[in-house]
Design brief:
single chain, Rossmann fold, seven-stranded mixed sheet, 5 helices, binds guanosine-5'-triphosphate, binds magnesium ion
């Protein structure tokens, strides 16, 4: 899929404020600082589209970006260790979960996992909670430039085997690096495939 046009549409504080064009949404979620905004900029080849920071807690609202006039990429605040008050973290958590569970147009949630880390309880809890609530999930293991081949394989296997404690099959997954531009074609390919399957229903 070629990205021809990227437009920031709006930032929303709740699902009621979100754009209602009826187009499919591909959403990026995960721990603060895992690289959600960087990934959106990488796959759209637009470094200015979503704001990035080394300080966890940069993205604070539900951000809709319209791609090729055809579908949305949605950037969400992270969970876990955003540098903000406990109150704000809880507010973002409720806002994101309500959006993810209630959106009628959510085509696919990409849940991002930092591949440098051993399986984190908070990631597993969120995946299990969202999965049980019917949200379609794929995983993206981010920052693969920071680990060697062996560690990459080991951490992905560890994470997937943890998931198999509660899932029948582990979800489809992708590997990315926004620094080395790894993962663009496979992630865009998955978006394309999902759009085609929605249109064929
Ligand atoms: P919040 O909006 O705070 O939840 O963070 P986020 O998940 O959107 O992360 P963001 O894209 O802002 O990136 C956080 C930091 O990680 C920045 O310093 C990025 O430059 C860095 N980063 C993102 N992706 C990668 C990657 O693939 N490799 C490396 N080495 N660093 C990355
Ligand atoms: Mg962000």
């Amino acid at each position: 899929m070629k990205i021809k046009k990227t437009e920031f549409i709006k930032s929303s504080t709740s699902i009621k404020e979100c754009p209602t064009k009826g187009l499919p949404e591909f959403v990026f979620y995960g721990r603060s600082n895992v690289g959600k905004s960087s990934l959106i900029n990488m796959i759209t080849n637009n470094q200015k589209l979503s704001k990035i920071s080394s300080k966890p807690g940069k993205t604070q609202l539900i951000n809709h970006f319209l791609i090729n006039g055809n579908f949305y990429l949605v950037d969400l605040p992270g969970y876990g260790w955003a540098k903000t008050s406990k109150e704000n973290r809880e507010k973002w958590d409720v806002m994101c979960k309500n959006f993810l569970i209630q959106s009628k147009k959510l085509a696919l949630l990409f849940l991002l996992i930092d591949v440098r880390l051993k399986p984190q309880k908070i990631d597993l809890e969120n995946i299990n909670y969202l999965g049980k609530n019917g949200v379609p999930i794929n995983l993206i293991f981010t920052k693969c430039d920071k680990v060697g081949k062996e560690e990459l394989k080991k951490n992905i296997n560890l994470f997937n085997s943890e998931l198999l404690n509660s899932w029948k099959n582990s979800p489809d997954y992708f590997i990315s690096s926004s620094v080395k531009k790894i993962g663009i074609d496979s992630i865009l390919g998955q978006i394309n495939k999902t759009i085609i399957s929605i249109n064929n229903v």
